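Sequence only, no structure available. Ideas?
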Amino acid sequence: MSKPFLKWAGGKAKLAPFIQAHLPAHARSRLIEPFAGSAALSLALEYDAYLLNDSNADLINLYQVLKHQQQAFIDYARSFFTAQNNQDTQFYALRQQFNASQNAEERAALFIYLNR
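Reply:
I predicted one. Tokens follow.
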């Protein structure tokens, strides 16, 4: 299906075919990913529904914001990927902004930016 849009240590993208071979072929109603990370399995395997879990609150916030705002959030997140923001000083300023932010959408977009 799709590739993960986040870089994540311990990603399972390459393991997806092996994992899929060990999952029941007839029960494709819901995939539960207890250690979601980049959600590589959810993006690679076809199910009717997905349940993502992770101990990283900012990661789960990102997935929740994306689920509810969809394209509007994608457009907002893209606004951080500019030539100006590709400078060291701006990167550190945006990291500081992320650390200070209480806004779910802003934190989610900056989480993606800082992940790259």
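The radius of gyration is 16 Å.
Hope that gets you unstuck.
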